[in-house]
């Protein structure tokens, strides 16, 4: 009766493998059993991977700010693309512009966030008016006037969302009002430059004569002198985080090798009167006892 093949193909134990590996003259590293990766190393590899992703994101942010600072400036102002704003009413507004430095006046200077620039060019022959004033005064002036307030702006692609307010015509032209913190009026391109101050402010675009139908091509600019230093800081931080996280992954992924097994010399025991140990039987050729 034939015997099952499983009895003829027994695996060698780890000790038998190491013994035979050394006996064949193989180098000790090839005779070492594999060392399993511990749970602590797996956690370190996961944390290092998260750190690499975070570092790459920081690098991308720093690179974007550096690109913007080097390519999107005009006369020192970081400038947005020129876009068309229009309404069939008497005015375009952007309200609730709150500036609160909590007493840290050094923020509002030429070296940090000192000036804002608004440029607009009216379509056709109409005279354009651009003004920035206290929110309460602007609300009082336009309280009964039909106008549109800009709620949201998307730049890619450009889309402005307006909130229309019903009403009538203004009681007087905007240039005759005396509450404006800064204003510009005229034919062609008008440029308003405003030194930023604490408070609640509103931006207003109107026709200088107060007539209905306002349309202008507008771009915004701000002096952000600190942007370059922020970009450099992000780039340096991203390099440090990415490099440290990569080193953590490499160190955690390295497997610790077990101690080397002592090599057995073929001439060991010769001349010393020792008897060589007998070779263990080859278990792969053993036959199972008859059933």
How many helices in DSSP terms? Answer: 4
Order of SSEs: HHEEEEEEHEEEEEEH
CATH class of the domain at 72-226: Mainly Beta
Main beta sheet: strand number and arrangement? 6 strands, antiparallel
CATH topology of the domain at 72-226: Jelly Rolls
- Alpha-carbon distance between the two ends: 9 Å
Query: Which structural class best describes the helix and strand composition?
Result: alpha+beta
Provide structural commentary.
The structure is a single chain. With 291 residues, the protein is an alpha+beta fold. It has a domain of 155 residues: Jelly Rolls. The chain has 4 helices and 12 strands. Strands 1, 2, 3, 5, 10 and 12 form a 6-stranded antiparallel beta sheet that branches. A hairpin with a 2-residue loop joins strand 7 and strand 8. Helix 2 packs antiparallel against helix 4. The radius of gyration is 39 Å and the shape is elongated.
Summarize the structure.
By secondary structure, this protein is an alpha+beta fold.
Task: Pick out its properties.
6-stranded antiparallel β-sheet; 4 helices; alpha+beta; about 290 residues; elongated; Jelly Rolls
Secondary-structure blueprint:
Elements: H1 14-23, H2 39-71, E1 73-74, E2 77-79, E3 83-87, E4 91-99, E5 113-122, E6 128-134, H3 135-141, E7 147-155, E8 158-165, E9 182-186, E10 189-195, E11 199-207, E12 214-224, H4 227-253
Parallel strand pairs: 4-7
Antiparallel strand pairs: 1-2, 2-12, 3-12, 4-11, 5-10, 5-12, 6-9, 6-11, 7-8
């Amino acid at each position: 009766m034939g015997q099952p093949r499983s009895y003829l193909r027994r695996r060698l134990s780890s000790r038998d493998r190491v013994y035979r590996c050394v006996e064949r003259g193989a180098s000790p590293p090839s005779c070492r059993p594999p060392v399993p990766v511990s749970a602590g190393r797996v956690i370190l590899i996961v944390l290092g991977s998260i750190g690499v992703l975070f570092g790459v994101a920081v690098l991308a942010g720093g690179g974007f700010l550096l690109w913007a600072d080097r390519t999107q400036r005009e006369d020192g102002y970081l400038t947005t693309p020129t876009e068309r704003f229009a309404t069939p009413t008497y005015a375009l507004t952007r309200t609730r512009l709150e500036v609160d430095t909590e007493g840290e006046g050094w923020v509002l200077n030429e070296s940090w966030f000192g000036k804002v620039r608004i440029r607009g060019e009216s379509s056709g022959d109409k005279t354009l008016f651009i003004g920035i004033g206290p929110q309460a005064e602007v609300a009082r002036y336009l309280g009964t006037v039909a106008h549109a307030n800009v709620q949201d702006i998307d730049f890619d692609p450009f889309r402005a969302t307006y909130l229309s307010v019903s009403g009538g015509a203004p009681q007087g032209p905007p240039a005759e009002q005396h509450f404006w913190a800064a204003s510009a009026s005229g034919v062609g391109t008008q440029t308003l430059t405003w030194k930023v101050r604490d408070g609640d402010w509103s931006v207003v675009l109107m026709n200088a004569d107060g007539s209905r139908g306002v349309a202008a091509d507008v771009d915004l600019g701000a002096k952000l002198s600190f942007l370059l230093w922020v970009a450099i800081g992000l780039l340096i931080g991203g390099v440090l985080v990415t490099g440290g996280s990569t080193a953590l992954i490499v160190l955690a992924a390295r497997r610790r090798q077990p101690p080397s097994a002592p090599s057995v010399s073929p001439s060991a025991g010769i001349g010393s009167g020792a008897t060589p140990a007998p070779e263990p039987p080859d278990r792969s050729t053993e036959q199972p006892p008859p059933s």
